[in-house]
What does this fold into?
Amino acid sequence: MPATSLASRRLPLAQPRVQLAHIDGVSLDHEFETLLEQHGLWPLTPTRISTLQINLGRVCNMTCLHCHVDAGPDRREAMSRATLQRCLDVIASSDTPTVDITGGAPELHPQFRWLVQQARALGRNVINRCNLTILEYPAYQDLPAFFAQHGVELVCSLPHYRPLLTDRQRGEGTFERSLLALRRLNQVGYGKAGSGLRLALVANPVGAFLPSSQASLEREWKREMFRLYGVSFDSLYCITNMPIARYLEWLLQSGNLDSYLQRLAGAFNPTAAAAVMCRTTLSVGWDGRLYDCDFNQMLDLGVEPKAPQHIDAFERAALEARRIVVRRHCFGCTAGAGSSCAGATA
Ligand code: SF4
Ligand code: SF4
It folds into this structure.
């Protein structure tokens, strides 16, 4: 596992344009736009913005091998209070039912709890994307109770239920700490039938391959997590690793980039393409800029120039009329059963 982010190692690969050039350099039979066109999906447009995904910044307590954010303890980017307030103003004045909070580790943001409280006070469904290990730091050990009190839906990353596979991707000892956190979440009601407190786990392949069937993996995970560790949860989301940032670094170092991208492109599924998350989600960067999704955000691909560029200029109708900016990394969302922030889409 790298000790620090690409950015702090000052690698050229930290720059989005260098990442895009590597992806564009792979020989593929079809371009993403061509396949969309063949299936009547070009230009790709939103159906309705039902989720505002707010990325609070790149600061994280971990430095996972597969991180598409290039997050880590060495990053400093964080959303300002003014931009957070502007996000809340937009939520209050629109009928966006879901607020999806991500990072980095969003809990490390000084105004994280305030944001959750405000969004819940507005009656919105709040999703928090949690890496689990953060809940084991002394200053954050009360978060399970806070989440339960405010009815926050939790989407927690855990690459695999086998300790070795999780630790290989996220660092030594990650699995044990994640398990402690999951047990404390279960204790306050998360993942327990009838509690109304939803707990989803997010699994991703530990290697250069596509995830297996989400439905069968969910059955296996639920059985094994309970049998081996006594932990229960509601859903398993299987996501495809996106060939950007630190996972791209690993693909390049291991000589897997060409074959991985070709595998993603070869597994293009039009049903998954029709259901990509950018059709229902708008992503806000830590500096307030708007993106079609968190992946485009990390590649510095803002929403198309005709659309409002910043949360300060949010205008629902104009944003719902925009064309979504797609590039070859989008094959990561449309391969096989598809992949989104809620797992498989097809
Ligand atoms: S994958 Fe998640 S937990 Fe790991 S470094 Fe990135 S943001 Fe942090
Ligand atoms: S990477 Fe983003 S823009 Fe591309 S298909 Fe996936 S969600 Fe949409």
Q: What stands out?
A: Residues 41 and 274 are 7 Å apart (CA to CA). The chain is about 35% helix and 10% strand. The chain has one domain: 12-334.
